[in-house]
Amino acid sequence: MTFDDGYRDNYDRVFPLLRRYGVPATIFVTTGWLRPHDDGPGLGMSWREVREMAAVGIRFGAHTVTHPSLPALSLREAEWEIRESKRLLEEELGTECTVFAYPFGHEDCQLRQLVEAAGFRWAVTTREGAPRPSDNPLLLRRTYVCAADLLYADFAVKLAGWHEWRGPLWRLSRHPRAVYW
Ligand SMILES: [Zn+2]
Q1: Taking the complete model, does pTM exceed 0.85, yes or no?
Q2: Is residue 46 located within the same domain as residue 114?
């Protein structure tokens, strides 16, 4: 499972469940939103919480520093967002950061090249669907799960992979989304 942005509830609510059920997970953090100290203000997790989760096997990926729509930036600014978030995570965690998530799923050919040149091996998008071995590793699809999902009609169907047969119109009707990523 993947989680974007690195909000505090990833630690308070999601982390205990991931541990209890042994679910492998990657959290894509917006590094500029993480709090330097546990008691600091802000919506993001603290770096101590990130380190604690990483120590027991939660993977962390980069999601830029300030969560911009990357295509709207100059290439130089976009490159900084991509590289600096990677550098910070590696400095804090002491391990190589190899996965990236495009904020809002916004990307293009030049940005994919920047992500690859920065040293990322994988990047995830907001394109719906299960990843396939033939996919471009810098354009991996995901299945969007949200609070409005019904347990059996949506969530169980997605886990089974059946939602891919329902077609794009059904998905759009179930996910009038775009603000979360
Ligand atoms: Zn995001």
Answers
A1: yes
A2: yes
